[in-house]
Amino acid sequence: MELLNNELRINQLENKRKDVEKALQNCIVRDSFLDDFEKRFCWSNNALEGNTLSLIETVNLLDYDEVQSGHTYSEYQEAKNVYAAIKNMLIPMEQVRIDGDWIKKVNGYVMGTSGEYRNHDIYVGNLVEAVYYPPASDKVEELMKAFEKTVNIKEKNIDKLLLEIAQQHIVFERIHPFQDGNGRTGRILINQQLINNGLPPISIKPTGKYRQAFRRYNNSGDLSQMVYILAKSELESFDRILQQESRYLLNRDGRNVEVKSKLRATEREIDL
Asked: Among the four 27, 43, 102, 133, which has the fewest Cβ within 10 Å?
């Protein structure tokens, strides 16, 4: 039984899709969204793995090379590595074919390594309780070749697309093909799949719901919570784009009452 009914959010995405596509044709709106996205996603992608840098601290590091006490060197390096992966692999938001080499290259940026698949067995969890034992290392190559055959999704229906991406994200994380950086690599992979289907990339908020979605699937095979996270995150990207467009039009047209009304309506929807 599905935990969540995502019909409302899917309908909201479908209803806003054309407006978002039109807004992204404006290079100023597009560039403004991407500038926000690449830093927001860098922060959230690392925060989901326990990195304690805040969004503002991440921005200050990336824009001004500013660091503060209370964080480790490795946390700052993680931010720089993930940012490099985003800039080199996702921006300028173009469609590319995903294959094993592409995935390895992403992980190489994320970890600052050559990005090769792991050559020994691992467990996911801690020394007291292993949450999950991924497949043996000698199975990784074969499993990833099978994964490559399904990863290049083409689906116009947002509902079906998000369901397929949710399924594949869980498959990828269960394979756990790399020694480290699998989560961060997998979420970059999600964004390339979205881009390949004409949708803007997303930043998943670093809350416990993301981990719960994996447990929910492991316990019952229910994907609805992962789809919910993807749909909610995509709606947030949609609303940021529409907000950027409203601000652009407001600045261009001056005191336009209709545009101001649109901006206020959009700002009520988005959680800044």
From this structure: 27
Q: How many domains does the chain have?
A: 1
Task: List the binding residues for ATP.
Answer: 180-187, 219
> Which domain does 218 fall in, by range?
7-269
Look up the pTM and report it: 0.92
Mean pLDDT of 1-21: 94
Per-residue pLDDT tens over the stretch 122-178: 988 876 666 789 999 999 999 999 999 999 999 999 999 999 999 999 999 999 999
Within-domain flag for 56: yes
Nearby residues of 241 by Cβ (< 8 Å), 6 or more positions away? 20, 23, 24, 29, 33, 200
Residues identified as active-site: 176
Residue 2 maps to a domain: no
Question: To 10 degrees, the CA torsion angle through 258, 259, 265, 269?
Answer: 160
- Quick: pLDDT tens for 217-244: 999 999 999 999 999 999 999 999 999 9
Q: Which two tokens stand for residue 24?
A: 């992204």
Distances, alpha carbon 192 to alpha carbons 75, 121, 139, 197, in Å: 25, 28, 25, 9
For residue 10, list its beta bridge partners.
Answer: none
Q: Which helix (H) or strand (E) holds 124?
A: strand 124-125
Share of the chain above pLDDT 90, in %: 87
CATH number of the domain where residue 229 is located = 1.10.3290.10
Q: Is residue 47 part of a domain?
A: yes
Q: Is residue 1 part of a domain?
A: no
